[in-house]
Amino acid sequence: QAADKGHGSALNNLGLCYEHGKSVGVDLKRAASLYQQAADKDNDYGLNNLGRCYEYGKGVGVDLKRAVSLYQQAADKDNDYGLNNLGRCYEYGKGVGVDLKRAASLYQQAADKGHGSALNNLGLCYEHGKGVGVDLKRAVSLYQQAADKGNEYGLYGLGRCYEYGKGVGVDLKRAASLYQQAMDKGMVSAINSLAECYRFGVGVIRNEVKAAQLYQQAMDKGHVEAINNLAICYKNGKGVSKDEAKAAQLFQQAMDKGHVGAINNRALCYKNGEGVEKDEAKAAQLFQQAM
């Protein structure tokens, strides 16, 4: 009813219902139309959400420049989502030229408002020196703040820091626990990382069967590294019954998705005749490709 009266915030909220299928069927075109109406009323969330529609082609054609313009308008209204999304555009050159300093500055502004995703993104900037100097302790603090807000990427980033001792002392149990929490929130890379923990006994009791199951789970969600890892399990009979043909097939699958290590592993299959017919020439060709 409020949307019928043209309230910007209600129009935006109804758009979210149609985008995500909450109490109504998913209808992306209707969602985009409602976001447009909210944006026309200068609603900052409507501007940001319409930007997302144009960035990802949800209910409208992809138009990155229009997405950037909408994010900018939302950011100008101090909208934390708009600031974070505009930061991403500048970080990855989506609709604008890459500008890492500007990206980091926008993430900082959104992070100051407590935006979980921006806290994580700013953490990545400090970890890798993107637009700011490398500062691992600051990165850890930001990942922790993102994790405290339940952000799965923050949980995962913090897990990596504890696993590898980046900005904090190594704490493998804490790393595994953080990967589990990130995985429970649907973070696919965390599934693969937790599988690694179980495969090698990192912070948990070694369990190769559990590792293989987790690799399969990550693979089913499209994680390329997990495909290669599951192939290794099949090749060596670790956590699954040994199946060299299945391993060779999985190496091929990972290779087709651009995994360099899988090219080398597939080459070894040809060299040793494991799961495929021995073919030294094909092996040499793949070894060359992997270099």
UniProtKB/TrEMBL annotation:
Pfam families: Sel1. This is Sel1 domain protein repeat-containing protein. It comes from Palpitomonas bilix. It comes from the Eukaryota. InterPro entries: ISR_Activator, Sel1-like, TPR-like_helical_dom_sf.
